[in-house]
Write the structure tokens for this entry.
Amino acid sequence: MSELLDRHHRVMGDHAPLFYEEPLTLCSGDGVWLKNLNGDRYLDLYNNVPCVGHANPRVVQNLAEQAATLNIHSRYLHEGVVTYVERLVGLHHDGIESAILGCSGTESTEMAITLARTVTGRRGIICTDATYHGNSSLVSRLSGLPVGVERSGVKSISTPQLFRPIANGLSETELLQKHLDQLEATIGSFADQGGFAGMMLCSILANEGLPNPPARWFAEATAMVKDAGGLIIADEVQAGFARSGSWWGYEVSDFTPDVVCMGKPMGNGFPVSAMAASHEMVTKFREAHRYFNTFASSPLQAAAGSAVLDEIIDRDLVHQVSDVGARLMTALTELQREHPQMGDVRGLGLFIGIDWVTPDTTNPDVVGAQRMVESLKSRFILLGKAGQHGNVLKIRPPLVFEDKHAELFVEAFKDCLIDS
Ligand SMILES: Cc1ncc(COP(=O)(O)O)c(C=O)c1O
């Protein structure tokens, strides 16, 4: 193992990120299970990309058959590609009519920002101050952007949240108003700086640590953006494809986006992403940018993407995620009563965050959260951390996770709580 680790660092660079104090060497996967070189089985509560399960037979078969038949780029007509995109946009609300496929979430968010600027003829983009939408030079301007700082036409607003509110002693309604006032001022501040083009939001504030915003924040904030002539871009790269117990995160968060970005789970690990909007907006984008990506819109992408849609629909995973997730949430909330280090338990469907704190405070306990991650790993359970402070335990298993898996997890979690 350490020999492989040395070689890894030598060829990948010393800071190539790896999880865990002792990194895990995996060799196979099946459904919600991963296996290491010794044959130990780990229950996967982390990986959202293999959404319909590791090594899903239908995805594998579709890919193999298509690879053995034809794979070409997007400058030829192909029935499978057109049908896939028709199905994809058909899963959204009526305003989402056309899509451009890409190979990464970053590509989809980058296209969306460029589209918003092209369509509105304005420049200003707003995001939250604890977000992540990708790593290109354009999109990384949205990462770690403090409120009040302007970075090449991008500004942030405070992440809306009840657990660690931006001001103490306010009612939920007053807190909502404070956030809306800040948004209004931020939109206004673009007036003499290229104008306001739109706001990009993860529909469930995933990288922010899944905070619960004040009630109606999504509805009111998105209405304010639209009133100001801006576009709402929903980043569904993490939130989409049944993760929240609905097809799309924006459905549970109760807003209607103009543009949608999709990625991670789309191809169950085969790179597929998409930026979708009205036909008119996509046409304007295409006219202005002549967008092309060698590997996107291929029959192979369509084969993987179609198999994922078929699996989600045929196995009724939207309802399964909602039901299993609700029961897991109840079990964790019950544990929270006895364990004050579980400061806040929140989330939707099979995306649950546990905000780990110094007991009886809201102070983030990053070390304690990391100890839980390591302790669970020693009991063959894999999960991770997320959030503004890196202290939120991130429970985000493949969608095919069932009650029996949740029970295994809760038992192991209780043991770790006793040890922590
Ligand atoms: C919400 C969100 N948007 C976009 C991205 C970027 O996706 P990718 O890594 O495929 O470029 C990520 C990646 O973690 C993400 O979490």
Remarks:
- Residues 104-106, 109, 132-134, 202, 206-207, 235, 237-238, 263 surround pyridoxal-5'-phosphate (CB under 6 Å).
- The chain has a mean pLDDT of 97.
- The domain at 59-314 is CATH 3.40.640.10 (Aspartate Aminotransferase; domain 2).
- The chain has twelve helices and 15 strands.
